[in-house]
Amino acid sequence: MTDFSTPKNTPFPSASLLGYPRIGRRRELKKAVEAYWAGKIDAAALDAAAKDIQLTTARRLQELGLAEAAAVPGTFSFYDQVLDTTAHLGAVPARFGGLLNEAGQLDIDGYFTLARGTKEQQPLEMTKWFDTNYHYLVPEIGPETAFTLASTAKVEEFAYALENGIETRPYIVGPVTYLLLSKASDDAPAGFAPLSRLEDILPVYVRLLEKLAAAGASWVQLDEPALVVDQDTPAAEIEAAVARAYEVLTSAANRPQVLVSTPYGSLDGQLGTVAATNIDALHIDVFKGDVPSAAALAGLGSKTLVAGVVDGHNIWRNDLAASAAKLDALKAAAGKVTVSTSTSTQHVPHDVAEETQLPEQLRSWLAFSDQKAVEVKTLASYLADPASAKSAIDEATTVIASRASADGVRRADVRARTEALTAADFSRSEYPVRAAAQEQALHLPPLPTTTIGSFPQTSEIRSARARNTKGELNDAQYEQLMKDEIRRVVGLQEELGYDVLVHGEPERNDMVQYFAENLEGFDVTVHGWVQSYGSRCTRPSILWGDVTRSAPITVKWAEYAQSLTSKPMKGMLTGPVTILAWSFVRDDQPLAETANQVGLALRDEIADLEAAGIKVIQVDEPALRELLPLRRAGQADYLKWSVDSFRLATAGAKDATQIHTHLCYSEFGVIIDAIDGLDADVTSIEAARSRMEVVHDLESHGFGRGVGPGVYDIHSPRVPGEREVTELLATAVKHVPSRQLWVNPDCGLKTRGYAETEESLRNLVKATQAIRAELLETAK
Q1: Which partner for 182 in 176, 194, 272, 680 could form a disulfide, CB atoms 3.0-4.6 Å apart?
Q2: Which residue, 621, 519, 609, is CA-closest to 570?
Q3: How confident is the model at residue 87 (pLDDT cuts 50, 70, 90)?
Q4: Is it the case that residue 4 has pLDDT exceeding 80?
Q5: Is 764 exposed, middle or buried, given 0-12, 13-18 or 19+ CB atoms closer than 10 A?
Q6: Whether the predicted pLDDT of 601 surpasses 50
Q7: Is the pLDDT of residue 3 over 80?
């Protein structure tokens, strides 16, 4: 019998990525998963599509030079890496009943049930993954949550690649991060902390490691990004949890070698804790974080230090000379050093070589996932032999220097405008003055109903846009089709009885890209898809230069929609922080400067909407929480400039113009002061999946302006019944004065179908009418 008391002694690869896009170069996974949900393919076909993507990825990375054992990360997921960990732990919330099958396994249908919910049960809550535009599904853990190895998908994925001649490096979220990201289940007692269940999940992790070792894995990657965040949990508790977790895992008799990865920032005080464990390799982010001192790295001993010197989160070409200097410093302080990315490259597209429509100069400034693999390989070559990388380093230095002086990167007219700003440009009249003017202008009933902006984008709409782009449909024909859809959407809202209407945004491909295509300083990609959550993919635009608006963007559509109804029509804009967060933003100046440039462009758009007779204007900021620094030291400065950029965009509005904003999938209590500081007249907030948790934050804060906690979760296909919506509204009324409350879905309806949308919106209106009647009766 093989003795596994000592892990297989395979050196950690000299060059590797922390992760790679898993959706497929042409979104093959999205198409397969959605086909499975629609019943067009069976589980076997879905599995075959997944295997093809996994193998194609592995072979591509080998072609790019990552050919050593365990250099290819096994980071595939059907939906979400945190959900994968929940599946492996069998951590199914009791509210879902018996999702595990007779063999005690969570099959693919049970897995998707947690992600998408059922008619009776809402899915797991969703929130942002650290400071990215990726979303994860929040585990629900309580004192009674049962843990068992309910999935061996990671083992099967590894075995399939190995059968095809490639030894990958399996990946799973580490135990400490998993529990720190979890929320207490509904039945947990007050004060319960999921981290208290650490001892109970470690045996399941050990079993998984044993199975991976038995399958032939020499390395496994355990991701612990929660260690780079300032947590509410005391640091001493986290340190103890890390020490205990990796004491147990590394003591397993039969295990692969363990890499602990810590992306998205600096470990700071936790570095010594992790270094002191018996893990075999430690990844640190030295792109975003500082290079640790020799004293800080001393605890590593003979462990391999995996240096994340290539940015996995943005698309700009690496300054190879600067990275080489960091590697020199690390090599002097640590024994074994290898090269990787700062984070998984799941946050960037596959290959810039496919973007042939971009200007050649711009393309030369960029590095997508494939280019980052080459950069990592180049820097690994530098570590082995500096002379071998000299030409590549010199070329990168030349290209980066050329970018600084390129036309459009800096514009005197744009900079003169931002430099001339004064405090008056960031403030409106006091809210009571505005509220009185808006009440006189709008005449809205109690609990006004509205939607967030977009309506379902049908295949016909998407086809019309594609045909117009290809020249198969002229602009006049395309515009008429969009007007027909707007007329349909306005008529539907009138029939349903909504109070403040939207035009549905059929002309918009994406809430950021649409503006990027109409502002100077941006370019857009054709194949630059990245995963946002599940099967949802976006194409972040490239913000490379100074931003300005040369002509109105949304006015003609809003003006046409308003002509169809006597009810108020919302003008719909995307806010400056969200445009930055959901784009690949220039890294050569402070974000605050770029945000103000975008804010001024939006300010001009708001003025034109007002001139066209639009009395309600929504400026969406769903990403406000997303860019919040993970360390508290940087948060106050971020919140100041992010709030200021919104106020700059909106402060020119007249008192009678009602300014709305929208936020979704964030821990709102953390930034409630900033939300208040936006000074929007009405704020709509995601609340359905969390079952109105946000109203407690609003109540304790004393939030004094209009607010619409969402009552319809649009990220799931389920239709909320009238009773469910009524209960959510009743909860909201208990904690927020009814005069402030609005009724709306959680987010835009773009990804939903019309049948489910109409039924859900009808239930929303019926529930509102019921609560209005109760309020009227109470007032008698």
Answers
A1: 194
A2: 609
A3: very high
A4: no
A5: buried
A6: yes
A7: no
**CA-based nearest residue to 150, from 104, 191, 182, 116:** 104
Number of neighbouring beta carbons within 10 Å of residue 520: 14
Q: What are phi and psi of 706, to 5 degrees?
A: -60, 145
DSSP run (H or E) holding 161: helix 153-163
CA dist 54 → 345, 474, 658 (Å): 15, 41, 50
pLDDT at 667: 66
Q: Which residues sit opposite 285 in a β-bridge?
A: 308
Please give the pLDDT value at position 489: 97
pLDDT of 736 higher than 70: yes
Following DSSP, what letter does each residue of 33-100 receive, concatenated?
HHHHHTTSS-HHHHHHHHHHHHHHHHHHHHHTT--STT-EEE---SS-HHHHHHHHHT---GGG---S
Which range among 52-66, 90-104, 187-201, 402-416 shows the weakest confidence by mean pLDDT?
A: 90-104
Contact (Cβ atoms closer than 8 angstroms) between residue 372 and residue 341: yes
Q: What is the pLDDT of residues 523-553, one digit of tens each?
A: 999 999 999 999 999 999 999 999 999 999 9
The CA-CA-CA angle for residues 337, 339, 342, to 5°, reads 120
Mean pLDDT of 493-522: 96
Closest to 178 in 3D by CA, of 308, 72, 273, 88: 88
* Residues linked to residue 530 through DSSP beta bridges, in sequence order: 538
Q: Which residues pair with 304 in a beta bridge?
A: 281, 336
Residues 6+ apart with CB under 8 A from 565: 490, 494, 501
Identify the pLDDT of residue 8: 67
Contact 775, 446 (CB under 8 A): yes
- Beta bridge pairs of residue 293: none
At residue 174, φ and ψ (nearest 5 deg) are -65, 160
Find, among 387, 395, 717, the residue nearest to 534 by Cα: 717
What average pLDDT does this structure show over 406-413? Answer: 97
Residue 219, beta-bridge partner list: 257
Cα-based distances in Å from 166 to 55, 60, 513: 9, 11, 38
Beta-sheet pairing, 135-137 with 126-128: antiparallel
Compute the distance between CA of residue 215 and CA of residue 555 in angstroms, rounded to an integer. Answer: 60
Calculate the average pLDDT of the chain.
95
- Kindly name the residue from 88, 347, 527, 715 that is annotated as catalytic: 715
Q: How many angstroms separate the most distant Cα atoms in the chain?
A: 86
* DSSP letters spanning 520-577: EEEE--SS--EEEETTEEE--EEEEEEEE-SS-SSHHHHHHHHTT-SS-BEEEEE-HH
Residue 335 has pLDDT above 90, yes or no: no
Q: What angle do CA 466, 471, 474 make, to 5 degrees?
A: 95
Residue type, 687: A
- How far apart CA 763 and CA 296 sit, in angstroms, is 59
Q: Active site includes 350? A: no
> What sign for the dihedral angle of Cα 583, 587, 590, 593?
negative
Task: Indicate whether 5 pLDDT > 70.
Answer: no
Tokens of 367: 């590095």
pLDDT in tens, 419-462: 999 999 999 999 999 999 999 999 999 999 999 999 999 999 99
Pairing of strands 616-620, 583-585: unpaired
Please name the helix (run of DSSP H) or strand (run of DSSP E) that holds residue 659, with its range, or none. strand 658-663
Indicate the SS3 state at residue 261: strand
Calculate the alpha carbon distances from 621 to 291, 551, 581, 661, 684 in Å.
34, 22, 10, 6, 10
Rounded to 10°, the helix 108-116/81-89 angle is 120
- Site of tokens 């402030």: 740
Please name the residue ranges forming H helices in 616-753: 635-650, 672-677, 694-701, 722-735
